[in-house]
Fold this sequence. Notes:
35% of the residues lie in helices and 20% in strands. It is an alpha+beta fold. It has one domain (5-74): Beta Polymerase, domain 2 (2-Layer Sandwich), CATH 3.30.460.10. The protein is globular and about 35 Å long. The two termini are 12 Å apart.
Amino acid sequence: MAKTGIFGSLIRGAERSGSDVxxxxxxxxxEETFDNYMDCKSDLEDRFGYKIVHLMNGAIKxxxxxxxxxxxxxx
Length: 75
């Protein structure tokens, strides 16, 4: 089962005024489209009132993957 999680400055307690919220979002296979990505981002920003930076689970670059996955807090 894929999970949604948050990571970044918010998890580390290093957020500042104007910080964005970094979200790791799962999409079902075949639904990883630009439109779905942007709809998800827009919906999260509307709901929570923060700028959202998010990654699809399968789009994490290998060089940053260990850092993200070590701190992600899943919902």
